[in-house]
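Chapter summary example.
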Amino acid sequence: MEKTKKIKLFIGLSYLLIVSLFLYFFFSKFSLQEITSYDFLRNYRSYLIELKNSNLFLVTISFLFLTVLWVFPFLGFGSPVALMGGFIFGKWIGTLVVVTGLSIGATFLYIYIWKLFF
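The structure predicted for these 118 residues follows.
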């Protein structure tokens, strides 16, 4: 029982540390007013579309890996991933990539928790 408490504490603290570091570095590069402006979205949309068009396979595999990473160790919910997938890939390919990544991440999480407690 003591081992599971240490593991839970480690997972919780590492999650908070990772989220805090991400938010710190994100908001040190971008301000809140930049993120909410339409020009910011337009500029980065063209950048992401250009990146996707130059190498669709690499961007798809990277997005799939990051989606699995978002769900499995970080316990993230799917809404931001689904919005970003639709924004980058469009309706159909984005749906396929997001559902595949969320399913794989949830399966890994289920297997990990099963091995941890049973």
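To summarize the output: Residues 2-29 form the longest helix (28 residues).
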